[in-house]
């Protein structure tokens, strides 16, 4: 699960990430996600808005996974990730967290992201992935999105919308951590900054569920 790719901000025609609202960042995430090529932009916006509302409305989700810290996030292009196997685990990449905190100070975004909030938001974000993986909320999100892939009489089968869980997790993290802007803005800006320096893959949250 990755944030949408963006052009370098050195391009004067490309607005800085903070010029886009949180919903637009969510739409960009969906548009850059495989399987959504050619979809109606209005549908992507509808799905993005629904996923945001779903995540923001979730009750606080406790993190039941074990938390481990790693220091190779910038090298791997990761800020945090949830893995379900062999043991549910949230991996936090301390070097990327530190880079995010430094970027917040550099951009003057402390009113949106208080000190220490990046770590708290990362845990809240990955806790939603764990919650959706193990509980009934995953089916509830599918119903809310309304992506019907099969109809048989009154029966409807709702399909997976790639990227929607990521948007819901970001919206939940913003809400429960009291952030002024979604973490989507921060990951977009951080991804741009890292890509310009290293020419490598933008920074992401990632979820590995296992078999």
What is the CA-CA span between the terminal residues?
17 Å
Q: How do the helices and strands follow one another from N- to C-terminus?
A: HHEHEEHHHEEHHE
What is the count of helical runs?
A: 8
Q: Mean of residue pLDDT? A: 87
Which structural class best describes the helix and strand composition?
alpha/beta
Q: What is the percent of helical residues?
A: 40-55%
Strand order of the largest sheet: 1-3-2-6
Number of strands: 6
Biggest sheet descriptor: 4 strands, mixed
Which regions are unreliable across 5 or more consecutive residues at pLDDT < 50? 1-12
- Shape estimate: globular
Strand content: 5-15%
Radius of gyration, CA atoms, in whole angstroms: 17 Å
Give your account of this protein's structure.
The chain is globular. Helix 2 (41-57) packs across helix 7 and helix 4 packs across helix 8. The chain has 211 residues and is of the alpha/beta class. The strands form 2 sheets. Strands 1-3-2-6 form a 4-stranded mixed sheet. Strands 4-5 form a two-stranded antiparallel sheet. The protein is 48% helix and 14% strand.
Quick recap:
The chain has 211 residues and is α/β, with parallel strands linked by helices. Helix content is 48%, strand content 14%. Strand 4 and strand 5 form a beta hairpin.
